[in-house]
# Entry
Amino acid sequence: MAKKTENVQEVIREIEAGNWHPIYFLMGEEPYYIDEISNRLLKVVLTESQQDFDQRILYGKDISVAQLINEARRYPMLGPYQLILVREAQMIRNFEEDFLLYVQQPMPSTILIINYKYKSLDKRRKLYSALEKSALLFESKKIYDNQIPAWITRYLSEQEIQVEAKAAQMLADFLGTDLGRIVGELDKLKLLLKTKPHKITAAMVELNIGVSKEYNNFELIDAIKLKDQFKAQQIAQYFARNPKNNAMVVTLITLFDYFSKLLIYHYLPDKSSSNVASQLGIPPFLVKNYQLGAQHYNAQKAMRNISLIRHYDARLKGFEQAALADSELMRELLCLLMA
# Structure
């Protein structure tokens, strides 16, 4: 049965239930989910004894499409299925043209996992249409910087672990958008949770990950929403002394996200906490950031600040001659935002 989806949890539930597809075509810019689905199939489909005979892991740079198809057409030796995982399939020459033949008539006793990372198939090509009919077609879309704190909160919530909003933002600022790295660090923090209720705090992140709980983008937004120029400049100075862990581009993304949401907040007819959280796509406990910010920045100032952030982003990227260092640009921007 063919299927197209972006819901990784739905795919994993089907795998655990034994509802397997002859082809898993896993593509997209975010490698974490592609690895997650692949690893789950490797763990579930074959027993340990079957794996020695009926499981193969191939690499795109080492094989041709003809070799791949020959492997996929073989019969299993011990059980009802053989499992083939192809890593880096995007590196196989003429893949989209030559793989079509197999997709049109896949081997029922083969479960073929294709890892097509960092890119997606052209939806206009025949291969894409054929996969829609005979495979599970999964697209793993990139998660952006401003979505990472919510992703961390959701990931931990699924394991019945709470996380302070400040801690989630600190982790996002420090670790970026690499979900594999984020999960690795979260797994380390989980080992420290001895008593219930399990909760990851900003203090734990500072002590074990090495991120300051006083000088980070979460605290910067707190200072800006209250127009606390002194605190904001203190944080900017800390960022300047620690540029490796506090990239200006990440701070600009955080600022842009805040003022964009603040502008939306101003035009919401229903400003109840539940509606604001729903419309802005934020946890309810963050609504106060926009309630307080709206007292200091009306809609016109929010729009002005969005333009300022875009302008300074262009200066940072070299579109305009800048005589100032990145750290000085940030301090200058903060002054203008809170003017």
Summary: The domain at 216-339 is CATH 1.20.272.10 (Zinc Finger, Delta Prime; domain 3).
